[in-house]
Amino acid sequence: MNTNRLGHTDVQVTRLGFGGGPLGGLFAPLDDETAAGALAAAWDGGIRYYDTSPHYGIGHSERRIGEFLRHRPRDSFTLSTKVGRLLVPQGAGGKLDPDGFHVPATHRRVRDFTRDGIRRSVEDSLERMGLDRIDVLYLHDAEEFFDDAVRDGYPALAELRSEGTVGAIGAGMYDTAMLTTLVKEADIDVVMQSGRHTLLDHSALDTFLPACEERGVSVIAASIFNSGLLAVPRPGEGAHFDYETATPDVLRRANEMADVCEAHGVTLPQVAMAFPLRHPAVAGIAVGMRSAEEARRNVESFAVEVPARVWADLRAAGLIR
């Protein structure tokens, strides 16, 4: 699978990356065997970029990804994780994690973008994963703590980069206005942008992506299926868009896009995966995978070459910019 370099660093990522959210039990329980099968199928399909976070299943995603990658040569893959949440042990009391992950509530999250908090988070992540280094480190979900993240978090990441502890730094967020500010005012290498550069949401094209292109900052596009609406060939009533039930207008647009795709022998998910990579600032996409079947399907969809006529017809119909 082809790779791209992140910013001006030496860090390379495959254009299709493994999103580790589902391995934390997001939305539904997930056992270790199924998680291992998803990771193995992704590896067999050529994926060599793996993204995770302490937030995903209060450490379950990091543990599972670490257990898999420990048995591969360290220079054969690229690993990213995130900072901004420390995991503090607590008694589960038979309860599940309240943040949407189906795992016992053995820890609680404490938001911390201080230098000490970030260094502790990195140490904890390395211990959970059993690995010796992290390639890419992101400030995670900093929207409500943006001032703290810029004032304290970014310098802490820059320090870790200068020490060689990590190879590339940036942020993983959805707010494109805040991300644009970070891109313009800080010396970052990469941004993981969630849900705003997709077939159905083009808002990243306004200021964020031009700023990244101007500054030489790479983008990893995440949530490219907008919570599932674009993950199926023909979405129906009740489909989710950005974690809520899709409105009739959004559902209509998605199905009009599906009409164009089918007319050219491709599917909506295949085109949704190809769309973000058409922008020169986008180095790759990260797609969540929770089973071997999902991983194989994503790899196969990603490999499909979308005919140029698809983009022309989508534009002519006013469905994409």
Tally the helices: 10
Helix content: 25-40%
**Biggest sheet statistics:** 8 strands, parallel, barrel
Number of E-type strands: 14
Stretches where pLDDT is under 50 for at least 5 consecutive residues are: none
Q: How large, in whole angstroms, is the Cα Rg?
A: 19 Å
Distance between the termini: 28 Å
**How are the strands of the largest sheet arranged?**
3-4-5-8-9-10-11-14
| Mean of pLDDT | 97
- H/E series, N to C? EEEHEHEEEHEHEHEHEEEHHEHH
- The backbone outline, from C-alpha atoms, is globular
Percentage of β-strand residues: 15-25%
| Structural class computed from helices and strand pairing | alpha/beta
Keyphrases for this structure?
321 residues, alpha/beta, eight-stranded parallel barrel, two-stranded antiparallel ribbon, globular
Secondary structure elements and pairings:
Blueprint: E1 3-5, E2 12-14, E3 16-19, H1 32-44, E4 49-51, H2 60-69, E5 78-83, E6 85-89, E7 107-111, H3 115-129, E8 136-140, H4 146-163, E9 168-173, H5 176-185, E10 190-194, H6 208-215, E11 218-222, E12 240-241, E13 244-245, H7 248-263, H8 268-274, E14 282-288, H9 292-303, H10 308-316
